[in-house]
Amino acid sequence: MTDQAPLTPTAWAIMGFLSLAPQSGYDILRQAKESIAEFWGISPGQLYPQLQALSARGYIRPIGEAQGPHARQHWEITEQGRDALLDWLKAPSAPLRVRDERLAKLFFGSRAEDPGVRDQAIAALQEERRRLLAHIDSALGVLLPDQELPPPSEAAKLGAPELAVRYGAHAARTAEHWVRRVVGRKL
User: Fold this and answer.
1) For residue 92, is pLDDT > 80?
2) What residues make up the domain containing 175?
């Protein structure tokens, strides 16, 4: 990867999903929506060009002919792609940057002359956090059907996907609790 531009976050996610099993772009989008969408989004507009770019680099390759009514091409990760993915997994991560439009609206809305703007920002933030929490609870049901998550002291026994969802659930509950405490308080 010396002269080439760095891979995009979408490219890394594609290779991550292909490291689990060969699949089509459609399958990757579906899995991303069901698993990592809350912290690592992938859109169709990003995915399909990145599949081509990864193939051009030799990191993935098509398997057979495109199949199905929408001509879905299946892909697999190459050994070179696995090596690049492993290097990425071992490399230090970029610092966490939260870009939350609802929090920005709350920040600026708290100074608006119209108090309804602040109240609307709080209500929208609270509703969005409730929806996020419901989505995460649903994902937990898929990952651990008919089971409850073990207490935090036992969390180390969980696999990585369950730990990521547990983190998301905790963060969503904390954010939702914080919003409930802010409602009605003068900012």
Assistant:
1) yes
2) 101-182
pLDDT 10s digits, 40-79: 878 889 999 999 999 999 999 999 887 666 678 999 999 9
pLDDT grade for 187, boundaries at 50, 70 and 90: very low
d(CA 139, CA 145): 9
* Residue type (1 letter), 19: S
- C-alpha distances (whole Å) from 21 to each of 25, 81, 156, 181 are 12, 13, 25, 44
Q: How far apart are CA 88 and CA 154, in angstroms?
A: 29
What is the CATH number for 47?
Answer: 1.10.10.10
pLDDT band at 186 (very low <50, low <70, confident <90, very high): very low
Among the three residues 55, 90, 125, which one is the final residue of a domain in this structure?
90
Roughly how many angstroms between the first and final C-alpha of the chain, as a whole number? 49
